[in-house]
Amino acid sequence: MSQNQHNHETCKADLIDRAEKLCSSRGTKLTNQRRIVLQRIAESHNAVGAYEIIERMASMGARPAPITIYRALDFLLDHDLVHRVESRNAYIACTCNHATSQPILLVCAECGLVNEVYAPSAALAVQATTTALRFTAKKIVLEVTGICADCVA
Fold this sequence. Notes:
Elements: H1 8-26, H2 32-41, H3 50-58, H4 66-78, E1 82-85, E2 90-93, E3 103-108, E4 114-118, H5 120-132, E5 142-146, H6 149-152
Parallel strand pairs: 3-5
Antiparallel strand pairs: 1-2, 3-4
């Protein structure tokens, strides 16, 4: 989807609402610190590193310690509320409920936009390959780097 056609305020509100419901259903808590970290990540669909999150938070008040941010990120990762963009050592907010399939992250090399998409056949192909090779996958990361439609235009 073109970012020009995207209502990001609704996107952020839906994310926080989903995070609250998910935490409540799991008996965990979306603390104020975790919520703020999630909100800073969700400011755009570009990947953001931990130290950029710290800078974003510091511009609004006290500068949090890196360990505080990493603990919040671990929680958000464990609850599928953010994804780690391995190639960028950064994070994006999870925009979908992916209980049934592994997302593929499309990373724009020009503007840094990261789109989370689902292609169940790709995830099944990876699973079939690892099974055929009797390889036990511990973590599967599917990232594709290229140029987004807005940058090509």
